[in-house]
Amino acid sequence: MSRRRELIHQQQKLGEAREIVSSMKSLAFMESRRLGQSLDVQRQIVRTMERAAADFLRFHPDLLPETDAKGPSASPRHIFLLLGSERGFCGNFNESLLASLDTYEKGASVEKTGVIAFGQKLCNRLEGDPRLITGLDGAAVLDEVPGALNRLVDTLTELQAGEDTLRLTTLFHDPEQEAIVSCELLPPFQHLSPPEASLAGPPQLNLDPARFLLELVDQYLFATLHEMLFVSMMAENLQRMQHLEGAVRYLDQNLDSLQRRSNQLRQEEITEEIEVILLSSVSVAPPTVD
């Protein structure tokens, strides 16, 4: 009886764990749906700003900083921004980012490199790494994105203020490409497509072109970081759903195994009880009369 009680107790604990894991999976699913709606809007914003920048730079190409300057003073500091996870239960999400970092860092053409880790779980992985400039708390849910993004922008502003030139490359998971992708944010607008339609003349501005470009860059970087963070969080939640689905299946298998074992022990107990009853009935049977 004690062995079956232990199995029942273990079943209860596994059942509770399964409910928790299943709830986490449901939350990840709902969060991915919310992110999908916000991501579509953010992508439209970024694409619109890129078209506006392409139209503007067609008539003012001299305003962009030179990226092929020679000489030691022109060598920029190369910073990698890694968009990791704030929470766990998402498989090798952060480990694969670090593996990609090693690959991209080897291909960097400058000696001065650094890393900004975004997401608490990723920061833990990079603790003590000499490449780490700073680690920032990320966003666990969509509602935490504005605060996390403001912390990131403040950090980048401080770093950019202390450097004459700065290269910033972001590494993040993209669920559509099912891979880790890179995007060079600084210097800005280096890989824009040409305008779709030819303009008869330069765009009419209410600001000085240099002032306009400066403010456009600020807005563009903020919008692009917003988009990348949404994409990374979408990939994180999809990977978390997949990881937790595997955990649910594993718990279900263990619960089924425990249930079969419990049923077997119960059958053995019933058999023993029947044997005891039969033996007891024989021992108390009345003597036969001749």
UniProtKB/TrEMBL annotation:
Q: Domain of life, per the record?
A: Bacteria
Would you tell me the protein name for this molecule?
F-type H+-transporting ATPase subunit gamma
Keywords carried by this UniProt record:
ATP synthesis, CF(1), Coiled coil, Hydrogen ion transport, Ion transport, Membrane, Transport
Localization of this protein: Membrane
Q: Which residues form the signal peptide?
A: none
Where exactly are the transmembrane stretches of this chain? none
Task: Name the membrane topology term.
Answer: Peripheral membrane protein
User: One GO MF term, please?
Assistant: proton-transporting ATP synthase activity, rotational mechanism
Function summary: Produces ATP from ADP in the presence of a proton gradient across the membrane. The gamma chain is believed to be important in regulating ATPase activity and the flow of protons through the CF(0) complex.
**Protein family:** Belongs to the ATPase gamma chain family.
Single GO cellular component annotation?
proton-transporting ATP synthase complex
- The residues forming a coiled coil are 241-275
One Pfam annotation, family name? Answer: ATP-synt
InterPro entries annotated for this entry?
ATP_synth_F1_ATPase_gsu, ATP_synth_F1_gsu
